[in-house]
Design goal:
about 120 residues, mainly alpha, about 50% helix
Length: about 120
């Protein structure tokens, strides 16, 4: 059986080690550990990285889209209020996948907190 990529496991929301257990307890909250292989998810630290990158990426996409719409059709100002729910949906929708992908990358590369050697 072929090994599943970290991105495929992230999109499924499954355990980065076994691919069977569920990674999430709720929409973006991790389970404490995998129910299938007992991998401790609490040992990984995804922090705010996924949220920060998503906000930057979604912000850039929305800015380009808003400028394009404004220069192409010159709509009234209130039409641009649509970017608020679109931005929120893109950020919240992508957060789950981004967090799952980052934890899968931490597992694959055995990333741990850095220490200064004496």
């Amino acid at each position: 059986m072929a090994e599943t990529s970290p991105l495929a496991k992230a999109l499924k929301g499954s355990c980065p080690r076994c691919g069977q257990g569920h990674l999430f307890q709720s929409w973006v909250r991790f389970e404490p550990r995998c129910r299938a292989c007992s991998l401790d998810f609490d040992s990984f630290n995804v922090g705010d990285g996924p949220a920060a990158f998503l906000i930057l990426i979604v912000g850039a996409i929305l800015t380009v889209m808003a400028i394009f719409v404004d220069l192409t059709w010159s709509p009234p100002w209130w039409v641009h209020l649509v970017w608020i729910p679109v931005g929120l949906a893109l950020t919240v929708g992508g957060l789950r996948t981004a967090k799952a992908w980052l934890i899968a990358q931490e597992f694959v590369h055995r990333a741990r907190e850095g220490k200064i050697a004496p």
